[in-house]
Design goal:
single chain, 260 residues, alpha+beta, Mannose-Binding Protein A, Chain A, 2 domains, two-stranded antiparallel ribbon, 53% helix, rod-shaped
Length: 260
């Protein structure tokens, strides 16, 4: 892998010009990737101090190390006896021989290799930015003699972990949705809305029920009227028949009298 050595300040400037940062191996996987990169760098000498700058300093407070993005490291693989806190040793490298961290001076005369990593932004990706950044950077640094298949084999543990972390736990999501949708709303406004909503529904239901009763009563009245008219007609018909029978009887009696 081709490379150039520079002091910490120039390495930072170069990475910032590329919209990137000096590599910051914050996790086990990133440490593994950094060590792989370090292994592939061909140094011009076999000096024990052949190493790689990392974006770690204690410039603000001696002994308090921070990454260049302002975050604090969860863990660091320091070499035995490091950091020793010698005067002016406010920067850090990973040396090639031990593949562990050493504190070194940030002076312009201290030259080491540098690798830049892309800055993770919200626009680039909304989750797992560190992994995406790491894989994209490593892909851009593949040596000519190494194929993608070789790289995949070397990164298989990292890729497997990324896949596991990107899996969606459907059970947890369903549980969270149920809790959110069934949660009681204690706000006064929600109680007022609920009361007026119930009152409105009750008024609508009562109005419909009242209209149904009125219509039912009208139907009953109509039925009674129809039945009353039929009874009246029947009585009228019976009255006519009686009158007719009486007239016929009188006429018969009159004929008998006339015959005598």
């Amino acid at each position: 892998m081709s490379h150039q050595v520079s002091n910490f300040s120039n390495a930072q400037k170069y990475c910032h010009h590329q919209r990137a940062e000096i590599i910051m191996p914050k996790t086990e996987e990133e440490n593994y990737v950094t060590k792989m990169l370090l292994q592939k760098i061909k140094f011009s000498t076999s000096s024990v101090w052949n190493g790689l700058w990392i974006g770690l300093t204690d410039n603000e407070h001696e002994g308090t190390w921070n990454w260049n993005d302002g975050t604090k490291p969860d863990f660091l693989y320091w070499a035995p006896g490091e950091p020793n806190g010698y005067s002016g040793e406010n920067c850090a490298i990973i040396d090639k021989s031990a593949r562990k961290c050493h504190d070194v001076k940030c002076s312009i005369s201290d030259l080491y290799s540098a690798v830049c990593q892309l800055k993770a932004t919200e626009k680039m990706c909304s989750c797992r930015c560190d992994y995406k950044r790491k894989l994209e950077h490593l892909e851009s640094k593949i040596p000519q003699h190494q194929t993608m298949e070789d790289l995949k084999r070397e990164l298989e543990p990292v890729i497997r972990k990324i896949q596991n972390e990107l899996k969606v736990n459907k059970t947890n999501i369903s549980s969270i949705i149920r809790k959110l949708t069934s949660a009681k709303d204690e706000r006064k406004s929600s109680h007022a809305i609920g009361f007026f909503g119930a009152l409105f529904i009750s008024v609508i239901f009562g109005t419909v029920f009242f209209m149904d009763i009125v219509m039912l009563r009208q139907h009953i009245d109509n039925i009674r009227k129809i039945c009353g008219n039929k009874e009246k007609n029947i009585r009228q018909n019976l009255s006519r028949k009686k009158k007719l029978a009486t007239i016929i009887t009188i006429q018969k009696k009159k004929r008998k009298i006339d015959s005598f």
